[in-house]
Amino acid sequence: MCVGLSARVVSVKDSTALIDAGGATREISAGVLDELEPGDYVMVHAGVAIAKITETDEQEAEDVMGELL
Fold first, then answer.
1. Separation CA 11–CA 33 (nearest Å)
2. For residues 22 and 35, is the Cβ–Cβ distance under 8 A?
3. CB neighbour list of residue 30: distance below 8 Å, 6 or more residues apart
4. Domain range for 62
5. CATH of the domain at 56
6. Among 1, 5, 17, which Cα is nearest to 64's?
7. 3-state percent helix, strand, coil for the chain, nearest multiple of 5
């Protein structure tokens, strides 16, 4: 089973993005996605942004993770 982490993009430089996932920030690879901008929400797996998601999707993912933890 694979687990993705939802996060908000803080900044993008070249093919690297700084993300905020529940208050924790880290750099990830953003080369898979086109036109990624600060404020976008993404699903992250293994340090790579694999999909853009909506803010609603991000909130639902956080709610599920909160229930699991």
1. 14
2. no
3. 9, 12, 15, 16, 17, 36, 42, 49
4. 5-68
5. 2.30.30.140
6. 5
7. 20, 45, 35
Q: Three-state DSSP class for 62?
A: helix
Bridge partner residues of 25 (DSSP): 20
CA dihedral 45, 48, 54, 55 (to 10 degrees): 80
Angle at 15 between CA 18 and CA 65, to 5 degrees: 45
pLDDT tens by residue, 36-68: 999 999 999 999 999 999 888 888 878 887 787
Give this prediction's pTM. Answer: 0.84
